[in-house]
Amino acid sequence: MAQAFIADRVVTPQGTRRAAVLLEDGAGGVIRAVCNVGELPVNARVTDFGERALLPGLVDTHVHINEPGRTEWEGFATATRAAAAGGYTTLVDMPLNCLPETTTVAALELKRAAAARRCMVDWAAWGGAVEDNQADLLPLARAGVRGFKCFLIYPGCDGFTMIGRKQLERALPAIAESGLPLLVHAELAGPIDAAMETLRDADWRRYATYLASRPDEAELAAIRMMIQLCREYGFRLHIVHLATALALPELSAARAEGLPITVETCPHYLYFAAEEIGDGATLLKCAPPIRGAGNRDALWQGLREGGIDLIATDHSPCPPEMKRVDEGRFDRAWGGIASLSVALPVVWGDAVRRGFGLEDLARWMAEAPAARAGLSGRVGSLQAGRDANFVVFDPEAEFTVTAERLHTRHAISPYVGERLRGVVRATYLRGELVYEGGRFAGELRGREIRP
Ligand SMILES: [Zn+2]
Known about the structure:
By secondary structure, the chain is of the alpha/beta class. α4 links the parallel β10 and β11. α3 runs parallel beside α4. The two termini are 27 Å apart. The model has no long low-confidence stretch (mean pLDDT 96). Zinc ion binds next to loops.
């Protein structure tokens, strides 16, 4: 029997309207059509969500799941539960902090084995481009990674090596040939080392010290270098977690030139501001750092003008003791913020205040990330032929974040205690309910997704 889901606000690439999402009969939860309610087959089994909004299932292209090897930090089981509670139905996993790092096909296969039968939602993998794996890049591409991630600076954790310009230039022909994007952690050590020289005797409990240690110039220098290499080698360049809005004019100029560049920012850069971060508040340590309130406004402007394509969480949890909350020293705390379960309302509240709508949310958090990971044919929008992944969203409701709502392995996040707007009522994966009102489906249906 045909199955359909109706809501007053179904958010599609063509706009938002009262509509029905009709599934293919017995075809594994694929959308047959998004149509008017009057066009449904008479015998369709219908679920009507009334005035709630139906958003496409969100796609997060920047998640550190940390499994295999560091499952005590997060892992597939808990990350995908947090994702389901947050309205995410597809995660793309970063190749580092897991052991082994995803820099060879053998490591990718170990990750697949670790993920099997543990996932509440779907996932895919990024591969790593490190100092010595140039020969592994094309095999990784053939084995199904969605692109490559590299660090131009020490990644904060041993194992996954940063890549220097010389090694990068050895890797770029293969990356260009693969047609897959290169995701770059864009900070260069030079400006950071110079800043550190002046901070030897600084008070590392102060957020201002940490902010000064990772200046805008570190991002700007890295982005300039990558634009130059992009022009030279013709690969697809993706700047992850852009924190400084000062880079936007140069990035936009490069794109206007025709270079294939995309840009992401993260919920924490759009929500918090340096002026509001208390000393010792190491839960807010991440790299690049959260910058000032004027910069935050400029990032929103970047989203408005299209210079920033998408929002990804950079969900990067760790055991609580690594955040060194008692000590409060920013130089010793792990850099990473966990936000999978709350990122949607974190972004939505400010988006509404700044005059954006549900279509913008769907574009930034589902459609554009799916495109960046080469998964647009499968996920990221409510339209015929795509997986019936969607979020039942209540855009007007409010709630206060509690530790119980995080669903991550460790219930720590700087968002605990924040009052947010927009509640994820339910999440569906390929037409099946996986999360509703704080409860999860018993069956784990998540799997690796391929284009
Ligand atoms: Zn990251």
